[in-house]
Amino acid sequence: MGKTGYFSHRECWKHEMGPGHPECPQRLDAIEDRLLISGVGDALERRDAPAAPLADIALAHDGEYLQSLRERCEQLEQAKLIGGAPYAQIDPDTAINAHTWTAALHAAGAGIAATDAVIAGELENAFCAVRPPGHHAMRAQAMGFCFFNNVAVAALHALEHHGLDRVAIVDFDVHHGNGTEDILAGDPRALMVSVFQHPFFPFSGDKEPASNMVNVPLPAYTKGMDIREIVEMMWIPRLEAFKPQMIFISAGFDGHREDDMGQWAMNEQDYAWITSRVKDVARRYAKGRIVSCLEGGYAMSALGRSVEAHLRVLADL
Q1: Which of 61, 106, 135, 136 is catalytic?
Q2: Distance of alpha carbon 206 from alpha carbon 200, whole angstroms
Q3: Closest C-alpha among 250, 289, 251, 290 to residue 271
Q4: 197 forms bridges with which residues in the sheet?
Q5: Rounded distance, CA 222 to CA 215, Å?
Q6: What does the pLDDT look like over 15-71, one tens digit per residue?
Q7: Residue 81 pLDDT
């Protein structure tokens, strides 16, 4: 116990959505470089993320949607052999290439494998450095750079395969985790607490959420200290009342003041503080069990520094 796992896979570098797209493979390079330079990577237990079984992904996603996405990726693979288009658009912001299906399987598989290892007591907690991200992926729709909802898949795996009664999802990405809400709203076994910029993509989360959703929409230019106050006043009491047996984090770092994908003014110390408060709850009620999955974060230096700060807290460095 006490070890922090670091799950990733080279397939996660192969999915990309075209030149200049902010959700790019270099995001993972930025994290790896920062962990190497800082020495934090030496303290982590690195594990390759396996491909997720389709039965696990189907806990969170519609079967017809999965079949359609797989077929579109296979068609791109075949088209590539004869000089066809390398990408297919899902929506104006989201595209697939021939590697998207496999990358997404490993991204979801990271969360599942991390969950298994943490529940088995091999690790206290884990971070999944994966892409594509997941929290905008709804039960039957890809959107917002996301295809499989990695955190929802992992949380449902914990509930269905490990028999947990209560899991919590913490989402501090600057964008609302509408996909996670779509999948878990109304499920009494799950509590989701989130903050997000509003009004802002995906323009959801502010209208009468289900009782197991603690949604806190905040305006542009919100500062880190204001978010800390919200966490203390609105998240922590609900988490403590719920007494989760495991906590999953949608770790989006695009609220950083250097990241132009959002208009918040957070910094890496804010992410460390939030992680510390979540870890306090996990150690009180969940045997310290946390699985964190990368979501947003598109300013490379800020992303690397923020993930380093997040991991320093998880690993007690």
Answers
A1: 136
A2: 11
A3: 251
A4: 218
A5: 16
A6: 999 999 999 999 999 999 999 999 999 999 999 999 999 999 999 999 999 999 999
A7: 84
Would you state the pLDDT for residue 132?
A: 98
The number of helices, as runs of H, and strands, as runs of E, in the chain is: 10, 10
pLDDT for residue 1: 53
pLDDT at 80: 84
| Greatest pairwise CA separation for the chain in angstroms | 58
- Whose CA is closest to 300, among 5, 79, 33? 33
Q: 44 burial class (0-12, 13-18, 19+ CB within 10 angstroms)? A: buried
The token duo for 249 is: 């984090």
User: Residue 271: which residues within 8 A CB-CB, separation 6 or more?
Assistant: 172, 251, 253, 306, 309, 310
Task: Write down how long the chain is.
Answer: 317
Q: Is 136 a catalytic residue?
A: yes
| d(C-alpha 313, C-alpha 177), whole Å | 23
- Exposure string (b/e) for 165-184, b if CB count within 10 Å is 16 or more? ebbbbbbbbbbbbbbbbbbb
| CA–CA distance, 148 with 179 (Å, rounded to integer) | 9
- Residues with pLDDT less than 70, the chain: 1
For the chain, state the CA radius of gyration.
18
Contact 153, 112 (CB under 8 A): yes
- pLDDT tens digits, residue range 106-125? 999 999 999 999 999 999 99
Nearest Cα neighbor of 292 from 314, 266, 270 is: 314
